Amino acid sequence: MTDQAAPPRSKNRLNDSEDDVLARIEAFRRRRPRLIDEFVTLAHGAGGKASAALVDAVFFEAFGSPTPSDPGDAAVLEVPAGRLAFTTDSYVVNPIRFPGGSIGDLAVNGTVNDLAVTGAVPRWITAAFVIEEGLSIDVLREVAADMRRAADAAGVAIVAGDTKVVPRGAADKVFITTAGVGVIPEGRELGARLVEPGDAILVSGPIGSHGMAVMLARGTLAIDAPVVSDSRAVSALVEAMMDAAPGTRWMRDATRGGLGTVLNELVQAAGLGVIVDDDAVPVEPAARGACDMLGIDPLYVANEGMFAAIVPVAQADAALAALRSLPGGAQAARIGEVVASPSDIVAVRNAFGGTRIVDMLVGDPLPRIC
Amino acid sequence: MTDQAAPPRSKNRLNDSEDDVLARIEAFRRRRPRLIDEFVTLAHGAGGKASAALVDAVFFEAFGSPTPSDPGDAAVLEVPAGRLAFTTDSYVVNPIRFPGGSIGDLAVNGTVNDLAVTGAVPRWITAAFVIEEGLSIDVLREVAADMRRAADAAGVAIVAGDTKVVPRGAADKVFITTAGVGVIPEGRELGARLVEPGDAILVSGPIGSHGMAVMLARGTLAIDAPVVSDSRAVSALVEAMMDAAPGTRWMRDATRGGLGTVLNELVQAAGLGVIVDDDAVPVEPAARGACDMLGIDPLYVANEGMFAAIVPVAQADAALAALRSLPGGAQAARIGEVVASPSDIVAVRNAFGGTRIVDMLVGDPLPRIC
């Protein structure tokens, strides 16, 4: 098997003198590969020259290369002693571009927001791409530019990444998985276990816009409503609220499953109940109209730029004022209260005194919205 | 749009007395959803009840839930002050199971190894799944079990995750993206800039087995060779080598693009050259045979359980002895040396004195091998 008399396997094999070798190798110098393709091919995922060219031309170009002289596999972070938050999410939204955003900013904002609602200050992000063969490289460049803009807006650095390419039909355009690390300020404690009866429930902004914007962008419904995704980093909102309401008990961004589902997760974890005033929950008129037409409860629609928070009643007004002073927080609202009984239940009260119970989302009215 | 006289949108709406409400809500208690499905559906990715059931029954079951009372979006890590390594990789291997491993252990080992060769002690992993609708839940359970076994073997905890489901045909079975964080011991410095002419090139084990094992497992070639993937965490090997050879300059796991490509990355980053002795590079006989039959140079075949290292000559024997004493390191070998000139070149010398230049991989002889 190791017979050296076998035919040469490489066209580069040279049985020449050392001088000949030295002469020929000049041709290999200064050979940093350049991207000349218009569409992604399997070679771009093979880890060789084409991969390097794609990463250089698209991702390093957009994100910057933290250590251009030594592009290793892992980024090195300088951290203080203490607690970090660490999270990940995959993004498979279809279509990849929609009013108010794209899979690129969503992939950054979603992970930034998961860190922020844990009480962390988001700092570093990784991005891994699974690309379908044949995707336009211009589309990829736009997605990468969206990611850079979102990262800059959120104050995070994209420090490491990966690119895989699968054959046509083995994926749908592009999936992005981001992971994030944030630093939790000393002394900050949050958790469902800290929530108490009487606490106020706040939301940082209107619900329902993201899921409906993506749904309508598919163009399969004969509805033409100006619904715009709320894709946005909430980290600045979180920090402003924590300053104004340091007793904040719990936060959660209401993504898949919507506000209704995250409040259910809260009551189950806390062993308490919540009562929400339907009229107090902000919903953009266009999003509400689209929900009404499709028979979808906005409480179950995914959001990507708002969060729910539980704060002590005494700090609720200060929290709201802080949220409302910032972009993305103008419609922040107090939507209800935590109760001891009935426990484990999300009850929604309307203006006529009727009450409905909102369970966790069952089924999936809106697949692939994030 | 907010007219409360509109027909009720939820079947749970109750316009009854509070007592009636209280009576009915008993039915909602103790309602932690249980997984009763055999195949993954879109609802398992919607973030609602089915998602919770899938995560409980498959992922929490396999990985353990770090904070079962409060399953938030981000894990909280206690870290010392200093440097962390942070990395990510997506795994799209086809088939998802092959001799010696599966997409599950690969997704853990690959990210563990990226951290280890940065000089970090791997500690925490996240795992994000993009699942094709219709995948058997038993298959997913097996993949999760493989991940847990690999994580335990590597001494890392899987601390956070995500599950997305895409419609049939929008992905191929399952893609897994892991991200990892490791702690870099104080004072440890590695990098291509530290490499010097005369340094020894080591490999921790044989090359070529992983890529060929996956290729043959597809069954599209009429070759029946006992090639087994080397999927394995190298973190223990790295630590043993760093103890024995504290002057180690640089390490890299030779995954996509193979040993030939990572050595090219090294010479480009260091501005030096390397000369490799072809006969000294360990290749399992079955893997070499398969490479010969397919006309593939083992230097370009992906590995998932070995790494290349540059060490000072004076520490090379100690490093080799340390590697050879551990599982996965028995075939560790010294395969060549770093040279000042010709620079930027990976030259491979055979037993007859012939020399070939091994460039970075061009094209992709083996798509979707990791």
UniProtKB/TrEMBL annotation, chains A, B:
Q: Which residues form the PurM-like C-terminal domain?
A: 196-347
Q: Which Pfam families match?
A: AIRS, AIRS_C
Q: Which residues form the PurM-like N-terminal domain?
A: 72-184
User: One GO biological process from the UniProt record?
Assistant: protein maturation
Q: CDD domains, from UniProt?
A: HypE
Q: Which domain of life is it from?
A: Bacteria
Regarding protein family, the annotation reads:
Belongs to the HypE family.
Matches recorded under PANTHER family: CARBAMOYL DEHYDRATASE HYPE, HYDROGENASE ISOENZYMES FORMATION PROTEIN HYPE
Descriptive protein name: Hydrogenase isoenzymes formation protein HypE
Source species: Microbacterium ginsengisoli
